[in-house]
Design goal:
By secondary structure, this protein is α/β, with parallel strands linked by helices. The chain is built from four helices and five strands. A five-stranded parallel sheet has the order 3-2-1-4-5. The chain starts with a strand and ends with a helix.
Length: 163
């Protein structure tokens, strides 16, 4: 099968998980493209059988940099990166003629959930699978709540998961 494994994180456990999954599938004889951000922490170090394609937008400057101090600027940069990355994912999947795509990233932000829903709506014969690390989006921000309570995100996820 011709497969795409998509991970928009530039570093950390999800990136490493996606690389190992892609290499395992390629080692089993599948033609696998791993779509990841440019300049990710494994750039130049990946020697596995999957083809790493660094086509997604890199993450914003790390915390502590001058631009990360302004919340509005930081949020705008993250939103811009998400839109560019997921737009590129949609474009790559349309032109790549994949039999299936495996999405390994969390979909706990509504722009990401909307982009993934768009992938399922425009997939044609391509199968779409998502590694669901947490069905209910966890609250990574302030507050006492364990889960995010967003009507927009919850509505998108209710449409997305059955697809």
């Amino acid at each position: 099968m011709r497969l795409a494994v998509v991970e928009p994180a530039s570093q950390g456990g999800l990136l490493h998980y996606a690389v190992q999954l892609a290499d395992g599938l390629a080692g089993a004889g599948h033609d696998v493209n791993l779509l990841v951000p440019a300049g990710n922490e494994l750039s130049g170090h990946h020697a596995g059988p999957a083809q790493m394609r660094e086509v997604l937008t890199p993450q914003s400057p790390p915390a502590g940099s001058a631009l990360s101090e302004l919340r509005f600027v930081r949020r705008a940069r993250v939103a811009s990166r998400l839109l560019r990355s997921w737009g590129r994912v949609n474009w790559e999947l349309r032109r790549g003629r994949y039999d299936a795509v495996i999405l390994t990233s969390d979909i706990d932000l509504w722009p990401v959930a909307a982009a993934v829903l768009l992938i399922t709506l425009r997939r044609g014969k391509m199968r779409v699978a998502g590694i669901c690390h947490s069905v209910r989006p966890l609250n990574r921000w302030s507050g006492e709540d364990l889960y995010i309570d967003s009507p927009v995100l919850n509505g998108l996820l209710q449409r997305l998961y059955p697809r």
